[in-house]
Structure formats: structure tokens, C-alpha cells
Amino acid sequence: MALRPEPFGALVYHFGNRKLSFLKSTTLVAVVETLAEHPSADATLAACGVPDAQLPAYRRALADLARSQMIERRTSPPPAARELAAGPCGEADPEVHP
Asked: Is residue 85 in some structural domain?
């Protein structure tokens, strides 16, 4: 999978299945880029500062990315608390359009 930053967010391309997706939120890009650094998707969303009201939209976006095989469920143990990235991933967008 490759992520290409764009002004609106990013293009995501899967080399295996040749699917192309658009991430229409810079915060969603930050979430995808840092998923491996956190013990769960919800922990990543919290670290990236996603407001509670937007959590359902971000969870749907991650589920859509998983269905299209752009991201996969973790098979290794999550990072230990001391290894987690500190601070937010970036500013939350007012609107998510997965």
C-alpha cells in the first residue's frame, strides 16, 4: 500500500489488488499513518484528537479501508505504553468524507 499526500488528504493505492482510495481528511491520513503506533484503532483516534462526535465516521472510514484491504487487522502484539507516540497526530478536520 502506498499513500500519496494531496491537498485534500491522500490517495491510497494497493499494489496487490490495484485498488485506489481517496482519504478526504488530513486527520484520517494521520490516523492511517499512525495505526501501528497505538494499541487499537480507538487509541489512535484518541491520540489524533478525533472529537467524540466524529468517531462513528472515522470508524466507518477505517472499516471501509479494511474491507478494501488497504489496512489490515494487527497480527502482532500492540506496542507497549512506553513505546506509544506522545501527543495528537494533528488537528481534527471539521468533516470526514471517507
From this structure: no
Tens of pLDDT along 78-96? 666 444 444 556 544 444 4
Judged by DSSP in three states, 17 sits in: coil
Residue 85 DSSP class: P
The answer to whether residue 17 sits within a structural domain is yes
How do residues 14-27 score in pLDDT, each as one tens digit?
A: 999 899 999 999 99
Give the separation between CA 98 and CA 58, rounded to whole angstroms.
Answer: 8
β-pairing, 9-13 with 20-23? Answer: antiparallel
Distance CA 46, CA 49 (A): 5
State mean pLDDT over 20-41.
Answer: 94
Residue 80 lies in a domain: no
